[in-house]
Write a structure and sequence with these properties.
heterodimer; A: mainly beta; 4-stranded antiparallel β-sheet; B: mainly beta; 7-stranded mixed β-sheet; globular
Chain lengths: 117, 112
């Protein structure tokens, strides 16, 4: 079955430092891949998605992610953290194998990002 | 106005009570979902509906039921609430397979 693993339930960085949030998936066929962000007391918002084409995907708020098939990874990065980036981040996958019509998203367990001044 | 509206935002109820969480959307999407969020477990799918006449169980449907009253409305019911159903519940929509989900702001449910 499709699954997604996020390494590190809590990540803390200093303001201005690199942000790296890890996501690995398990699938024999590269899935559709998504990163969502959840700010306090809000629902999830889409940061970026990979479906096909270029493996480096740029999203909102300066975030980007690179799809690496050989590593089954889709890590999220941002060169310089800002205080407003403090939130919980979720990686999600959708299985590409079954024609797509009934596909649903499977979410990782989330990574809570803290940004220290 | 929010595209996906969930009511209530917070609810405290007692064990054994029946409770309904409501979701409405103005996106015009056919697909609607109910997820449950628990700390350390991420989001888990409870039920989903791809159109008004289509209802499907997700990975954790036991203890829950749903009703799709219209394209825009999708309600989640707990027939007899129990404490381990204390969680944050999210409704979401999208317009086709693998397109991004649009989420409501959630309902925080506490069962005492």
């Amino acid at each position: 079955a499709q699954s997604v693993t996020q390494l590190g339930s809590h990540v803390s960085v200093s303001e201005g430092a690199l942000v790296l949030l890890r996501c690995n998936y398990s699938s024999s066929v590269p899935p559709y891949l998504f990163w969502y962000v959840q700010y306090p007391n809000q629902g999830l918002q889409l940061l970026l998605k990979y479906t096909t084409g270029a493996t480096l995907v740029k999203g909102i708020n300066g975030f980007e992610a690179e799809f690496k098939k050989s590593e089954t990874s889709f890590h999220l990065t941002k060169p310089s953290a800002h205080m407003s980036d403090a939130a919980e981040y979720f990686c999600a996958v959708s299985d590409r194998r079954y024609g797509g019509a009934t596909n649903k998203l499977i979410f990782g367990t989330g990574t809570l990002l803290a940004v220290q001044p | 106005d929010a595209d996906v509206t969930q009511t209530p935002r917070n609810r405290i109820t007692k064990t054994g009570k029946r409770i309904m969480l409501e979701c409405s959307q103005t996106k015009g999407h056919d697909r609607m979902y109910w997820y449950r969020q628990d700390p350390g477990l991420g989001l888990r799918l409870i039920y989903y509906s791809f159109d008004v006449k289509d209802i499907n169980k997700g990975e954790i449907s036991d203890g829950y039921s749903v009703s799709r009253q219209a394209q825009a409305k999708f309600s989640l019911s707990l027939e007899s609430a129990i404490p381990n159903q204390t969680a944050l519940y999210f409704c979401a929509t999208n317009d086709r397979a693998n397109s991004p989900l649009h989420f409501g702001n959630g309902t925080r449910l506490t069962v005492t």
